[in-house]
Amino acid sequence: MADERAQAPLPANSRRAQIMKAAGDLFERRAYQEASMEAIAQHVGIRKASLYYYFSSKDELLGQMQQEMIEPVINAHQSRLSEGALDSRGLLLAMMTDLVSLTETHPGHMRIYVERHRELPELIRGKIAEQTDRYRGMLVDVLDRGVAEGVFTVADPNLTAMAILGMCGSTYQWYRPGGKCTAPEIAQYFYHILMTGIETSS
Amino acid sequence: MADERAQAPLPANSRRAQIMKAAGDLFERRAYQEASMEAIAQHVGIRKASLYYYFSSKDELLGQMQQEMIEPVINAHQSRLSEGALDSRGLLLAMMTDLVSLTETHPGHMRIYVERHRELPELIRGKIAEQTDRYRGMLVDVLDRGVAEGVFTVADPNLTAMAILGMCGSTYQWYRPGGKCTAPEIAQYFYHILMTGIETSS
DNA sequence: CCTACCGATCGGTAGG
DNA sequence: CCTACCGATCGGTAGG
User: Of A20, A80, A182, B8, which residue has the fewest beta carbons closer than 10 angstroms?
Assistant: First the structure.
């Protein structure tokens, strides 16, 4: 018999999503130390121990949050590829827009992804690192394709990919929704810099 | 009377530098959790309690490390300005080289600077944030100057500065010394992308 | 700079 | 999903 004061467990999937959202919110606004399992539970409105009904450990929770970030951008790129409607320029802009938009939709996840990746246990960290490498490879492929099409001139596609990822992946550090720029506008501007550079063409 | 087994305290300045270096090393190679005061002390070869002879708290130590990063790049830029030998292009390249080089000379400090800034107590965090803002302002000034000189075409100097800082400030995430590129080479390449863009000029 | 020690917190578990 | 609880660790202090 369950304690009468205990709520009925919610369906695992929706509760898990709710917990991840709460953790993301805490990471976005507060320092990491404050995103304890206790704080996350309070934010959800359940007891800390109940979190362990949905996640076997804090590492599993953090790992899930990171995967929830990288998977959608991989999938978005792949479906664009299979649609075949975009050329290398269009694909590049779309990727950059995806990346910067994460800052708008999942700012806390983004921060966790960048700043806590190394803290995960080997197994799950490896899985996420693999997806990150895969995405970087996709970006390099788009650059190579642009070179093949004659529209890009890229001396070092790998370094160029790192520049793009660094530019787009650090927006979470300063972007605040409701400011003067939306995420797609920032992506568009970064794309513009990347395309034409800032040197005056005389 | 001191315990006979106790070493004599080293001069505060050199010991403090040694402690900061040890903390940087730990941050570079290990996850943050492992960079405890205990681990830092072991790495230095003293007892944890002895750290508190040199730093009043862990926050003071982390704050010092962050300031030790931002101050040199501010000073380097200012002395270049007062020398007056460089134009806006030269100044920009020099700033980017400074930033990327931190990854080589202080990789652990760089990681702490980016990933643990929010965890510091208000007072010291504010001081460092101020210096960061100041440096960003200096970068915007260089861009503005290039526009005035007619050599740069920049629609939004602030956003451009964020792109540059994001690009250069995230190299610590992937750069490993002894690879195929040195830090100045990476800075040079990033500068090249920034100047001319990747779009083939037909 | 050391020995000895502490309060607080944190992730996690037992058992229902 | 809750109550009750624990072991480990961590930053930090007292006192020399």
Answer: B8
